[in-house]
Design goal:
The chain is of the alpha+beta class and 183 residues long. The chain is built from five helices and 13 strands.
Length: 183
Amino acid sequence: MALLQEKKVYTYADYEKLPEGAPYQLIGGCLVKEPAPIPYHQILSSRLEFELMKFVEERDLGQVLNAPTDVYLSDTEVYQPDILFISKERMSIIGAKKIEAAPDLVIEILSPSSAYYDLRHKMHVYETSGVKEYWVVDPIEKGIEVYQNINGEFRLFNKAYRSGLIHSALLEGFAVELEKALR
């Protein structure tokens, strides 16, 4: 990831001036440029999104979106999670240009360029912004950790590496088989 540092603190007004599709996220008031994900990252993202979308659509639970979709969490925090879910009851947060509040569920797939942000800064902002469930997918270790937001604090709900099932706390009945999803 490369930081674009001409100003000390960037805001959403600055971010909006970027050309559509520019590979930046606004993290802690910094414009952070991300390289394109590697193919394996995109393969994992597609598999997980497919499973989640199938589950959500069969039950008419809401909307599943993928990157790059802007999620506005504050004037200095605008992210593009790999996968996100918004419940049917909260569809009003889907604006014309961006998601205008914390999604119900966020899935981030770690990459060497984004792991620090995904595991530290962004995780904390997701937590305090009200994301109900946060999945961290580790392609190198072939694992998934699921964090549930309880009273404004993420707590590890479920984790598995290499084999087994990962369950969602938020979406009752939704589970992912690691051998299938992370192969």
